[in-house]
Amino acid sequence: MLKEPQLFDPLVRDLEGNAHIVFPPGHPGHADAAYQAHRDMVVAAALSHVPGTPPPDIVYTAQDHACWQHISQALLPLQRQHAAREARQALEDLALPTDHAPQLADVSWRLAKLTGFTFAPAAGIVPLAEFYGSLADDTFHSTQFIRHHSRPLFSPEPDMVHEVLGHGATLASPRFAALYRQVGAAARRAETRESLKAVSRVFWFTLEYGLLEEAGELMVYGASLLSAYGELSGFRDMEIRPLDVQQMVTQPYDVTSYQPVLFAARTLDELEDFLGAFCSGVDGDTGSRLGVTADQKW
Ligand SMILES: [Fe+2]
Fold first, then answer.
1. Residue 2 lies in a domain
2. Distance between CA atoms of 173 and 290, rounded to whole angstroms?
3. How far does the centroid of ligand 1 lie from the alpha carbon of residue 267, in Å?
4. CATH of the domain at 80
5. What is the number of domains present in the chain?
6. Which structural domain, as residue segments, surrounds residue 82?
């Protein structure tokens, strides 16, 4: 069975302070020295990026391009079948290539014209406060590497396939982009670790894993589902619940496997009302009010 993104951070620094990617055993790139060296190069480009400038151009390998082609051609029919209308339109507007990996700077330029959002390069896992807070400034931190070519339908980390084919599908929609901004503003007001976790969990069960009804059918708008071949094929088999903040912040989940519980909005309007009400009410006490504890996993 496929497993979907697992948020470990493979970025480490050597004694000279140089950043390297180290994959744990079992990672598809673990024994591939050339892939590791390539990933180090992508990380170095992100670390030397000057904020406010476009993401650096990456020299993608033939294997990267082939991998992008494989996954995007596998996902496209599923996205056409299962993605919510706004997400399908956003993907059409983004006009992503299917035969080669795009440069993040090009995608970011098109995204900016559609909704004002831009992609900023991420060398590794971005701290929660920075990741969510920057959404208020129309900035989405994105990795630029492509998953290992040996398993094109699997990535143990959020790669550019997830960021662009998943998040891009909603960041390029004006209505969804507005929701990302509201989450960003809420994160800036969160003040405490507990409240920030509450924001993170609501984001997880909406903009990462959310569903909404269209003409009586459940459709996908969550980036993790939209970018995961296995989950996009089988999400209707999961337990599906109505939107509920309390359940979202306390529902246990495992980032290393499929999400057994998903939350569906009856309409996009309902999702906007739900997220708008939650986000506008976030303050330093939100987490403790909802029973989120500082040591709670995620
Ligand atoms: Fe994501």
1. no
2. 30
3. 22
4. 1.10.800.10
5. 1
6. 11-289
State pTM to two decimals: 0.92
Q: In this structure, is residue 232 part of a structural domain?
A: yes
Give 53 Cα–ligand 1 centroid separation in angstroms.
22
In a domain, 298, yes or no: no
**pLDDT tens, position by position, 187-205:** 999 999 999 999 999 999 9
* Closest residue by Cα to residue 43 from 63, 62, 25, 23: 23
Q: Report how far apart, in Å, the C-alpha atoms of 229 and of each of 19, 155, 193, 224, 243 are.
A: 31, 11, 33, 10, 24
Averaged pLDDT for residues 89-93? 97
Q: Do the beta carbons of residue 10 and residue 23 sit within 8 Å? A: yes
Q: Ligand 1 centre and the CA of 148: distance in Å? A: 18
The reply to whether 100 belongs to the active site is: no
Indicate whether 297 belongs to any domain.
no
Query: Per the residue annotation, which of 142, 173, 200, 227 is the catalytic one?
Result: 227
Q: What is the structure's pLDDT at 4?
A: 38
Q: Based on the residue annotation, tell me whether 167 is a catalytic residue of this protein.
A: yes
List, in sequence order, every residue forming a beta bridge with 13; answer none if it has no partner. Answer: 19
